[in-house]
Amino acid sequence: MAPNPPSIIVVNNNNTNINIMESSISITARRRVGTGSAPLRKWIECEVEHNYQNQQYQGGSCDEKASKRVILLRATTIAYGIAELLRHSRLSSPRKCIPVDENNDPASNTSTSFSEHCTIDNFIVRELQAADCSNATVAASQSNKLFPTTTWNWDDIDGIDMISTGSSVNIFEPYFLRCGVSDHGNDGQPEDPTNIGRYLEVDFSLDGERATQPSTCEEEDTRCCHALGVLLHTLFYNLSPSICKQEESCATATGMVEFRLPRRKDDDSSQDNDEGNGEDNEEPARKRSSLKTSTGKHSTLLQLGYPSSICLLVQCLLRCEEEENTCRYDSLDAVIKDLHLMLLDPSRFLFDNEPSLESGSMQLLFREHKLYGRENEVSVITDAFCRVSSGRREALFIGGFSGSGKTRLVNSLTARVDVAGGYVITHTFDQMSKDRPLLAVIAVFNQLCLLIREKNYQRSQAIVMELLQAFDSDISVLARLLPNIFAICPELRSSMQEDERNDQVTLRSMCFTLRRFLRVVSSKAHPVVLFLDDLQWCDNSSLTVVESILCDSIESNSLFFVGSYRSNEVAEDHGIFRLIKSLRAYGVPTSTVALEGLNPVDLKTMISDALCIFPRMCESLSTIVHTKTKGNPLFVLEFLRSLVDGKLLNYSLRKRRWIWDEDLINGVEITDNVLFLLTSKMVGLPNNIQSALKVGACFGLTIEEPVVSMLSTTPDYSNILRDLEQVVEEGFMVKIGSSEFKFVHDKVQEAAYSLVPDIEKNKFHYSLGMLLCTKSKGKEIDGIASAIADQINYDFDLLSSESPELRIEVAIINELAGLKARDSSDHVRSSSYFNCAMSLLPTDRWRTHYEITLRITFLLAESVYIRGESAEGILAEILEKSCTFEDKLPAFNLLVIIHFHSQKLGDAFSICYEVLSQRGEQIPESLYPPSQAIQLIEETSKMVEKISYGDLIAMKEMDHELSITMKFYNFITNVAFFSKPEILPFLIHRMIQLTMDYGFCKYSTMGFMIYAVVKISRTKDTEVISTASRLGKTALTCSKKRFQSSDQMVSLYCVYYGLVAFHTEPLQSCADMLQKGFEAALSRGDIGRASSNSVQYIKCLLMAGESLPTLLDKVNSYLELSTTYQSTTFFVYHTIFRETIFALIGKGGSTNPDRHPEHQPAEGANPSILDAIHFHRAIQAYWLGHSERCLYFADKFFQLGTHRGKLNGIEMTFINGLNSFQLLKKQNSAKLRRAGQNAITELESAASNSSWNFSNKVHLLQAEAFSLKGKNEEAEASYASAIRSAQFSRFVHEQGLACELAAYHYNNKKIRDPMSALSYFNQAKQCYIQWGSQMKVDVITRELSNLQIATGPVADAPARCW
């Protein structure tokens, strides 16, 4: 046992001796509760003894490796505490513990001071104990142990006390960091606790002055470091019995050891100097340790089995006075930083790493998931996502060279998205798939459905219900676009019938469908992150999708779009920059981030981590690498790997660390592109692996499992699966599932593709495609048809030399690929595939290959039309070459749609007439005399008068051939509704007759619906109107029940809720359903019906008193759509609406025809447009107070004769009645009296079927009539009823109007009730404010001012409650 340390005599400036004993009261007082303490020497002896006894008493059952690591960690923690304590003492003002010479020159005595006081006997170790400190010390002394525990942890070290200075340091880990630091997971196995680092901090318990600025004396710092090196060498040397293997040493409590470290066979002696004389000898340069082995010789720490990091640290401290030593320490700060790094990540910077079991050699330990030098960028993307999580949309674009870390930056956000309950969907574009990127974007959203099921299964049913509510009967459109929607709810598949593809889904309609989908699935609770990588390879259609879903003005959602691109591979006119400009113009928050190469400091940290060497010791290598790679992270990784492969960066088994020759590395010739390094490495691989790389690269970033499986059946690539697995072992690809492979980086895929000479690329693609084509006979290839077609089409001209049979097979593959592109709304790509298929057919294809020619020609015509190009020439070829009339029907069908949407109603009618005539139907050109139409309506009424919902449901299904006839009757009825309404009675009679005789089909409903419209337009009988409305509702309900996803719903919604339902259902409900009809039509690409639904929707909202600013936003969004779709009719109607809303808000607008020449009725103009123009001018005139002008336009409106039974007709009757009563106050006119009375009668009739929509209007008309006649009591009661009724129906504009007219009534000269007038004016003002009409607010404000001027100041009257 070592004797107790002597008292230390310290001399101060006054030459006064001070004895500081080990048991200093000042130190003891600073110990934290629950700690024990002992001199450092005693602590070392106990560590050795404790470890030895554990080995002996437990029979070697304890983990020897773990025990050694714990000792190393504890010792390193003590070293860290000593270094911190010494540094803090040096930064403090001169104290009594530092000897000073007579000339007051402390610098001259610094070396002596640190040499004498940096000794083992000057430090006390404090360690956390479970028992009471005093009792533990007694128990330890009795058992010859310092600490009574049989096991210890490296986090038990509590602090260090320095006897000579009376100072202490507490060592601790902040509570919030106690989870540890480690990136060495191992396949789910429990983490070795000694691998988990700790972020330690220190707290000093030092009386007296606080620390001052550090010394700037370099010589003083050097001497301090050397003294610390001597101390640490002594510390670790005396702990060596616990580090050396038991079979190689004999440990005792005295700490002496004798052993010989065996040489390893594979140690490279040519690169390592002799251990005793080389540069790694840790023997002190100036002063040797006083602790010796039994042989009397110094043993190096490396020989004793210490990790190379400990050896290097001690060596650099001991040799810090050698100026030629570039790795020497120049300050205690640098030492503390390295010691802290050891404890923070011991598995990397403290313990020696071992060679890989798989390769048998040492590998560079790159941190796979760490972002170096991107703290600011991480903050930008994290902050953006936090904003998105609060319920908004945002976009972030990341530019940078390939390999700059763009993808890894985005991946750093994944964990945060998971915590927030969000979804991350990603796709990486590549040059191989740049012609079909839209398919990939759709696939990303399809993948979102699977993520929802996996991560939020409990809410999946709720999501399904929300989707059904949002899409209603149009759910089939979503399911066709995103088939994985069935993964969320499989029951949805069984409840949804197969929908005939009558819709013309375009890119814009597909975007609209995705908008509707995201409104449901994305929210604050579940934000969606869409990451599209390598945007430089995408096309404008993909960017259009992004723009559309971000610029959703109707409804907000939590969507975060992140796009990355290679900034050096895009021109200024690339669509990326147009997208950024467009998003910003629309008001979507859009940020950009530019990733440059790593700066030298961050690069040094990256290399330090890879080599497991302190950053300061690899600075020279880092400088060279930065010069050659410009700090590009991927380039750096591949360059370092190339240095290892080239033996310029070696792992020394004897020194147990990486070594290199700076001159040799500096002389390496290298281009400034990582592609060179990757290609060079690939060229050196065996031919079979190179072949696998080439094949994989030809299919893009990923080669799919079906492709691999099919290639493996060919003689040339029978071993492709095994070869690809070897590519994985080389680190170029990763394996997904059983046989799908993906390149680890797009640059790796480019390097692999460059292995194919440019002159041979097309031929190589072609050969792969033909192999797959040959093996695909009789197999299901829908999933890979595009991949096969793309490979063959690279050298399409070579097909001219192939056999006719093979050309037909390739044509069918292109047809399948075209269908796949069509289903994803990529009609540019689909038409390309169909064109390729057509060109492969022989010149006499209509004779030799009739069926496939007919099929592909029609598919091509359909794709061309949806792209916005003329398809009439292609359809004319079909009509000319088809063998049967039945084969012409799809072409006739598409021609009708083309003519109808282009407003060529006459041509559309003629085609329908021809088709129906060919199918045996006789359609009259007109119904004359008119009694014939009346008779047909009566006959139809008899057929349907007793029909019920149950009857319609029980009807049999109409056969297919007859349903085709009904389909063209449906077409001609829609056309006739606008162009030949006089023959509608015959058309609906025939449709209902066929239904009653032969069964129900999805086109039958339109016959019942148009019958209801015609019936209502020809009568004022409330019972008849009620019956007709009920029939329309019954037919609609039956159709939804029998055909859950019928494409006819968009038309039925427009007809029923726009022309029928308002007679019996609230306007607000009608508006909601019309909006669904609009959305369904737009999702199907039916811009005509979308336009019709939107017009009826805005009309209902306007008459229901919707907030005018909100209404204006909706109209503006529709006007944008009309411009986008180039729909003139769409644009005209909503322009008229906008003018009216402007006038009502007070932003302008005039009813003067001369002010709006663009709205002047043209000769032969569409009666519906004339109806709208006159209606809106009359409405504007009335609200603006122009009674005479209102009367003029009302007369023009009624003269058209198209108003009967329509909502605008009833509304105009109401407005004209109110206006007539206003004019009667100025002039006595029989015409005006009749108009007022007729309005009351007609509105009473309408109110009998819908009190919600019309009762308030009846009361207000009656109030005005009573007021005009001087029946004040009746008038006041009617005003009150009108106000209550309007308030109940939520018609705020008409509630305000009733209050305003009541105020005028109370303010007339005969009554003069200013208090009541004031009350009603105030109520009217509040209603108009709520409506958003500043124009009316200004009018009421003036009336209030005039009222007070005329009567004097009047106290505010209380508002009346209705």
TrEMBL record:
Source domain of life is: Eukaryota
Q: Where is the composition biased (Acidic residues)?
A: 269-282
Q: Provide the residue span(s) of the region labelled Disordered.
A: 261-294
Transmembrane stretches in the record are none
InterPro entries noted in UniProt? AAA_16 (IPR041664), Hybrid_Histidine_Kinase (IPR053159), P-loop_NTPase (IPR027417)
Q: Which residues form the Orc1-like AAA ATPase domain?
A: 370-561
Supply the SUPFAM superfamilies for this chain.
Answer: P-loop containing nucleoside triphosphate hydrolases
Which Gene3D superfamilies does the record associate with it?
A: P-loop containing nucleotide triphosphate hydrolases
The name of this protein is Orc1-like AAA ATPase domain-containing protein
